[in-house]
Amino acid sequence: MSAHPPAAHGRRVPVRWLMLACVFAFGFLGYVQRTGIATAAEHFVPELGLSQIQYGWLLNAFLIAYTVFQIPGALVGQRLGARLALAVIGLVTVVAAVASAAVPAGPATLLVLGVIFCARSGLGLAQSALFPVASGVIESWFPVRRWAFAQGLTVAGLWLGAACTPPLMAWLMTQRGWRTALVATSVPSLALVAFWYRYARDRPAEHRAVGPAELAELATNPPVVDREAGLRTALRLLGNRRIALVTLSYFLMNYVFYLVTFWSVHYLVDERHFTLETGGWLAALPFLAAAAAAGLGGRICDRLCARYGVRRGMRLVPMAALPVAALFLWLTGTAPTGYLAVAALCLAFACTELTEGSFWAATMRIAPSEVMAATAVLNTGGNLGGVVATPMIAALSEARDWSAIFALGAATAVLSAALWVLIDAEPAPTAG
């Protein structure tokens, strides 16, 4: 049987949307694997006798590897092509996630800490290129005017995965234990990898099911990326002032991103005194709000750019949404009841995630022919925000000072919004 899908006549769904559905699924399953550890921590932290500080550094093992290998991973992904790169990422992610369940039973000896540290670092390494490579898929398969919407839908996938994880992990843990839960939530990635590798192609022109109309929509896209780009490309992008400003703003915004991702269950159980099962269900709500907001924010961004131009249109969503997110973060820390805190947290995170399409599409427009490497620079900055924030949140949670945690998140959101006054995502003029 041919590896190519049969050509389709009168296809109603353009191939690009099926490609995006696969990217959506990679983000969904990747975040199930990434965030499952936060729910599992409610069992393995006391079982292994870990302190909150030790747990914070184990989370940081993922973040450090994930951050350090963003740019190298994107450059490798650029050389391999998105089809092969995502298949490799999916396979290695499964191995790394399953290894987290192999930690020896008993108190937290140096060996136990070493096993968890290596497993989390391996997962970070495996997933480091996931979203830069996904951006390369969007750059190749979608017209520029839809980049923010496609990015928003990709982010919606990861937050739906994060939303499913707390209740699913909590149920699996009560039935089979945290080790089985980590393994069971990783195995579905194997089916996705098999389908992706058979169906996907790096370029629309290489796919037999892509017709002339779909190719015509992409005719004005930037030229095909140079797969031989390497260290010089990375250094040039790191020195780009406009990318640096977007990245700094994303660095600040990601304090909120990682606060909700890794600490919601612990906050609801430890500070608001919900049970683990109830806390797991409630912790899914901010992720559901974020999923809806990410897709909506990307669509709004594209429409604002079409109406007001890229320079003004790209700024409007983050400059409006992030200050509102700051207000709701402050209300989360001061809410008199647990359910009001959950409601405020959902609204804060939804406002924050309205901006994802703006951040990623702005970076793509600034460097339209080097999308994987440029978005890797962006995501490196964003994850550095997580690397800095995680031990700070761990220390403050150890002191049970959750009001300070949310107040700090409010401050970083306002600063992130302020930087957009300086950000210009208009493509640089070409010489000639």
CATH class: Mainly Alpha
| Secondary-structure element series | HHHHHHHHHHHHHHHHHH
What oligomeric state do the depicted chains represent?
single chain
Kindly report the average pLDDT value: 85
* Secondary structure: number of strands: 0
Structural write-up:
Helix content is 77%, strand content 0%. The protein has 432 residues and is mostly helical. The chain has a single domain, classed as Growth Hormone, Chain: A, CATH 1.20.1250. The longest helix is centred in the first third of the chain and has 34 residues. The relative contact order is 0.15.
Characteristics of this structure?
mainly alpha, globular, 432 residues, disordered N terminus
Short structural summary:
This protein has 432 residues and is mainly alpha-helical. The chain contains 18 helices and no strands. Helix 3 crosses helix 6.
